[in-house]
User: Fold Protocadherin beta 3 from Serinus canaria.
Amino acid sequence: MALARQVLCVSAFLWLPLARAEPIRYSVAEEAESGSVVGELAEDAGLTPAQLSARRARLVSEDGRQHFRLERASGRLVVAGRLDREELCSATCMLPFELLLSNPLQFFRVEVTLEDINDHSPVFPEDQVTFDILEKSDPGSHFPLEAAQDLDIGSNTVQEYSISPENYYFRVSYGSRITGKKYLELVLEKPMDREEQAEMSFSLIAVDGGSPPRRGTTEVKIVILDVNDNAPIFTQDEYIGQVSENMPEGSVVLTVQATDPDAGINGDISYQLSQAVGKSDSAFVIDNKTGEIKITKPLDYEAAHMHELSVRARDGGGLSAICKVLVEVVDVNDNAPELVVSSFSSPLPENTVPGTVVALFTVRDRDSGANGKITCDQLFFSLRPAYKNYYELVTVSALDREETPQYVLRVTAADAGSPPLTSTHTFTVDISDVNDNAPVFNQTSYTMYVRENNVGTVFVGAVSAADADVGLNAKVSYSLAPEQGPERARCSCISVNSENGHVFVLRPLDYEHLRQSEVTVSASDAGSPPLRANVTVRLVVLDENDNAPLVLYPAQESSPASSELVPVSAEAGYLISKVVAVDADSGQNAWLSYHLLRATDPGLFSVGLQSGEVRLRRPVTERDSVKQKLLVLVRDNGQPPLSATAALSALLLKDFSDVRLPHASPPTEDQDASLTTYLILALVFVSLLFLISTAVLLARKVCRRKELKAGHVLYAADTLQSGLADAAAAGTLPAPTCYEISLTTGSGNSEFRFLKPILPSLQRESSEIRIDNNRNSCVRWK
Assistant:
């Protein structure tokens, strides 16, 4: 929306009928404590405290400093801070300001006179003064001194001087001349004799008229010299010079001159400059030979209009004279107008009515005369005068944040100097919005992934929502929305950062227990009332190869290990058994492969890579061992791969109905050791007692033969019993078949008969061993 440029010229002097003609005057002592009551301002202005609050009463001063404070509740005017008269004023001190009221606009001029208290002691320009006085000086000779200065005024300034200790040669004389100029002198009372006393010292004391009085002291040193009877004399008692405040450093202000009729060293004059008390940082310097006074740094009219200096001229004999130098600073237009904002309202609601006051400000210029005249112009908004140099910035039409969310207003103030100086102040007015837009996610749903066995508090993704509003209405915070219904409990493992929408998984996850989870994330703005939007976040758990294959068959916990019965007549490809394994992982991490890791005869067997079937690779031969042990490796396809092993055994039998067992079993290691011992003992006994040894050996052979026959049968029975039991436990016997083996101790042959399937029974004779599994196989021993 384009706004027409407007230029307003405002006069610095306004006729305001609402301003009170006579000011309200008060007085207060300087250094009064903060909060001290100055006067009943509301009562003197004819107002009540309630009117002060209702009409937004405030104090406004021209220099912008607030020395006083208005208590709206009581209507009293109180001291706002420390008041130092010497800092604020040079002589009579009066602090003016205005009491500003609104609705309707009204001003009261208030003037507070700051009364001096005796808070400064007299101070001499120098801590020590030295006089070189001729011993032939006549009584009544006067020796001028620089008077002590007291920053206080009136009766609190210096009133009298005295000498301590009392001196018979000098007295102090002080007072004012006809011209009004004050003087301070030492008066010689009687002649001095250098041969009696070459020098003397005493204190000069200045006392002010305060209560209690304050005093200042300087040390006076008298050096008695021989004849130098003419002191320097200045051509003027007082010099006045002018200098512009923009004069460069080193510029000559004026030249002082003093003469001395004496000749030689007594007629050589040197100049010395001293400034007023409290002005240690001097802006002036004097040439001690020529008397030229120059400035050492640029002067500022706004800081000080005039500078007062003292110049002492001293001849070579020690006589001196003092003159005063006044330097007036001439103002130049070196200060641009200053725009001071009293109040400013931003942002503005977009429903603000036209004519609303946006800002109240004042314009002032520190320069004097024409350099301080001010005009103002601005763009876009209307500017209207309020009082004196106060102006109001107001709206002129309805505002619409959707069309223009921000207005930049520039106010320019120019003075009447040559050349004119200007200053510009920019008002940036923001238009505030109402909360009429809910947050909007940048996606309709989110899918995030995390690998199982993750570390705690892992970052998995972020959700993001934007709000078309501004300020707090656009500040979006995120949270997990409660799920509706008891069957949709929120997953406690997911968290969302309320500030940036980052989604974290708080604890390690297991793919085998949780494969995915869904939560609802809510985005809410900070408006009143807040608006919100929801989005679904689906967390997918990615599988890791963290589970080794598990062998289900043959069972590895059974003891003894399972055995499979294989006829020796079986051809190549005969199915002996099948290794069954599973993997809790998914995907290629669960793809299993089977490998023959170790076997009694590796060339006899083969294992299906994918199926796990154990088959004969070739026909069985007589050279093959009856009992074969195999170790099958089950490996998954993960990275890195994990594996497990399955152990099984096979019995190679010629005929299941006619099992031939060996007549003698190989001797055990214990039997071999025992037999060797017996043989050694037998040889010893044979050599000693052949006959006795022969009889004993025959007897033991007879006993040994009987024991071996019984042991062969028991060993074969135990071996076959163990193999069949393992096969039955592993479930590898053909189903449904029942085997019955009859073994006797008196025969080398045993029976192996097939019986029909029978029901399992827990109660059997102690002579029977029954092994029953899912394949309905059994073995009966007799």
